[in-house]
Automatic annotation (TrEMBL):
Name assigned to this protein: L-threonylcarbamoyladenylate synthase
Subcellular localization, as worded in the UniProt entry: Cytoplasm
Entry GO terms, CC: cytoplasm
Record key words, sorted: ATP-binding, Cytoplasm, Nucleotide-binding, Nucleotidyltransferase, Transferase, tRNA processing
One Pfam family in the UniProt entry: Sua5_yciO_yrdC
Catalytic reactions on record: L-threonine + hydrogencarbonate + ATP = L-threonylcarbamoyladenylate + diphosphate + H2O
Major enzyme class: transferase
Domain YrdC-like: 2-186
Record InterPro entries: DHBP_synth_RibB-like_a/b_dom, Sua5-like_dom, TC-AMP_synthase_SUA5
GO biological process per UniProt: regulation of translational fidelity; tRNA processing
Protein family membership: Belongs to the SUA5 family.
Length: 196
């Protein structure tokens, strides 16, 4: 594990992409503060530039350095982080400008000791978009990942992803109200019960 973390952090520091197993799906990750790395990621995924990239953080302290937390966002994060909840929040710290064409970014703290250790050692947020070409189905199989990304991504970390794994639930709470953009690993009922 230490060997993997060291290699991944080195690649991220060179603005290179990596594929990592998370608590939901495989993620395609780069340094979220590097415009060069983010631009490369858009190219690798064939993703439209207007489709913002989500970000992973490893702590509340780190999240609060880069994002504005209103009361509702803090309540949701304290209950469901770390885990499959992505919050759309207003940006306040200096992340790569090309992550999003708006002032809002999707952010999540994954329930993955590997991801946490990587971000802690790297010291900065990383992107957390799914490791698949844009518009294609999610990839659960390591061999398929290798075939898809072997010429584009220098480090692809193997890991167990459940075939029935759900993506994270995505909520825009940037205006202190709840707007569901995707229901995934956390049910709508669980969210509404907490905030009612």
């Amino acid at each position: 594990m230490l060997f993997i973390v060291k290699d991944v952090v080195s690649a991220l520091s060179r603005a290179e992409p990596v594929v990592l197993p998370t608590d939901t799906l495989f993620a395609l990750s780069v340094d979220a503060t590097s415009e060069k790395a983010v631009s490369n990621l858009f190219e690798i995924k064939s993703r439209k530039l207007e489709k913002a990239l989500p970000v992973f953080v490893s702590s509340f302290e780190q999240a609060e350095r880069f994002f504005e937390f209103n009361d509702l966002a803090m309540k949701l994060a304290k209950k469901f982080w770390s885990g499959p909840l992505t919050l759309i929040l207003k940006l306040k710290g200096k992340l790569a400008k090309n992550l999003s064409i708006s002032e809002k970014i999707a952010v999540r703290m994954p329930s993955s000791s590997l991801i946490m250790e990587i971000i802690n050692n790297f010291g900065k947020p990383i992107t957390g978009t799914s490791a698949n070409p844009s518009g294609n189905n999610d990839i659960f199989d390591y061999q398929e990942l290798l075939l898809t990304f072997k010429d584009k991504v220098p480090i692809i970390v193997n890991g167990e992803i459940q075939k029935n794994a759900k993506p994270s639930t995505v909520i825009d709470c940037s205006n202190n109200t709840v707007q569901f953009l995707r229901v995934g690993g956390i049910s709508e009922d669980s969210i509404l019960r907490l905030i009612s």
